[in-house]
Amino acid sequence: MAEGRRHQVPVLCKNFAEWVPAIVVPWLVVDDVRRLTAEGLASPSASMGLTAAAGTWASCGAIFGYMLYDCAVMLIWQRQMHKSMGSGLYATIWGHHLLSLGCWAIALSRRNCALMVAWFLFSEASNVFLTARTILIKLEVGGALNTGVSVVFIVLFFLIRILPLPMLAYLLFSGIPGLTHLTGFERFISWTTGPLPLLLNLHWFRLAVAGLLKFMRKAPAKEQKTQ
Known about the structure:
The protein is mainly α.
């Protein structure tokens, strides 16, 4: 692959590195997700003021390390990343990383929507098969393997990111008014940035399903051409 498409080498290395946060980050935070969710559902009005435990902080530190690495890669190999990802996704990833780096640690330290941050960290688990799918596409591996990996990714994405979305939206809008220990500006940040990852997950899910359908439509057409 490197001999034929050298511009893809930094991109592929970045894709392999994405397996690290997809495995480590959810593993660190999973216990806190269970605890915070149970406590939040028991008292929705107090759900956004819960305190994060050590697992959430460790998970947050792990994802920050990855995001800083990812930002460095996107800066150093900007042309290759822009060509591989497209301008829309390139800008979206930058916005996602910078907002997360700027908000999440402060939110945890101020008891501001720690439950939401914990769920956003746990949702990295859906990227295990996304990374595999991306690598297969870069290596131009299609067929049943690509389709199978894509289907598993979409199912996991739905279970981890989309299925809990109504619950998270309910807890978010029920709990923010109870953040009386925060300043008005901090509550404004909660109202404006809290829903963004939920909307982004819906957007990414739509793109993933559309991409799979497009791939599956292309496969029969390609087979007919080769016959």
